[in-house]
Design a protein that fits this description.
single chain; 75 residues; OB fold (Dihydrolipoamide Acetyltransferase, E2P); mainly beta
Length: 75
């Protein structure tokens, strides 16, 4: 669920800094730090690495950091 004052954009992961912290680049060239929440499983995080395209939730107040967003699968 998207928070008030934020927006979701696509980004390309350019580096993995730790288990839950990544560096990503938006299509306009802007780089930001992206973190994963504790709710995200190890299986989901294994798919994220340099070269992966992910969705990132960015706050309109601080454009230098974002939160990794995984789509919930409807079955």
């Amino acid at each position: 669920m998207q928070r008030a004052g934020s927006f979701v954009v696509g980004a390309l992961v350019t580096g993995k800094l730790s288990e839950r912290l990544f560096r990503a680049q938006l299509s306009n060239g802007h780089e930001l730090l992206v973190h994963a929440t504790r709710r995200q499983s190890a299986d989901q995080l294994d798919r994220v690495g340099p070269g992966a395209v992910v969705s990132v939730e960015v706050s309109s107040f601080d454009l230098s950091v974002g939160r990794l967003v995984f789509e919930e699968r409807q079955e």
